[in-house]
Amino acid sequence: MTVADERLDAEWLRGWCEHTEAALAKLMRSFQARYGFVPGTNVVVLATEQSHQATDALVELTPIPSDLTTMYWVIEQVTLSDVENGYFVHPASLVADHFREYGAVQIDGEESGVVFAGDGGGHLFALAGSGRVWRSSTASWFDQFDLAAASLQEFFEGLSRQISGQL
User: Fold this and answer.
1) Which residue from 4, 13, 15 is spatially nearest to 151, judged by alpha carbons?
2) First-to-last CA distance in the chain?
3) Is the pLDDT score of 115 beyond 50?
4) pLDDT per residue as tens digits for the range 79-110
5) Alpha carbons 132 and 113: distance in angstroms, whole number
6) Which sign, positive or negative, has the C-alpha torsion 117, 154, 145, 164?
7) Sheet containing 113-119: order of strands
8) Other Cβ atoms closer than 10 A to 147
9) How many CB atoms lie within 10 A of CB 52?
10) Are strands 124-128 and 133-136 parallel, antiparallel or unpaired?
11) What is the dihedral of CA 16, 91, 134, 104, to 10 degrees?
12) Mean pLDDT score of the chain
């Protein structure tokens, strides 16, 4: 686990991508037999030159936490349709669109946050300037946000545990 004042390491995140892709491949091989239906999309999409440009545009739009910049230089997006209720790390272009429409989310007692992900229930995940990840208590940009992880690394570690729990 990391603490909020440690920054996300790109090499650690690349390793997470490799581990997650292997775990998802294993999960998908047995998914239909185990759950009785064909799985949806479950993929980690690595960053491309185009997604790097979208990240640069997002950085120009708003001062985003540095861990989010690091994440977007490694990962374009994550779609885990069949892990729990689903988890979706949005591409930087969508984060920018949402920021233009809704702005930063306000978190009680915390720096404002940038929404970067959601779950299948419509809850939002925001990364605050402190490096902590917050989850909306409802499917709303304007309701309360509760602490979800002490860092972005801890958030990704939690996704790994969710995937492993379904194997």
Assistant:
1) 4
2) 22
3) yes
4) 999 999 999 999 999 999 999 999 999 998 89
5) 9
6) positive
7) 42-46, 75-80, 87-89, 113-119, 124-128, 133-136, 145-149
8) 12
9) 14
10) antiparallel
11) 150
12) 93
> What's the rounded Cα separation, in Å, for the pair 158 and 152?
10
The amino acid occupying position 145 is F
pTM for this prediction: 0.93
Structure tokens at 44: 């980690």
Residues contacting residue 107 through CB under 8 Å, at least 6 positions apart? 113, 126, 128, 134, 145
pLDDT in tens, 37-66: 999 999 999 999 999 999 999 999 988 899
Integer Cα distance of 97 and 100 in angstroms:
5
Position 3 pLDDT exceeds 60: no
- What's the mean pLDDT in 1-25? 86
pLDDT recorded at residue 4: 47
Residues 6+ apart with CB under 8 A from 146: 134, 135, 136, 137
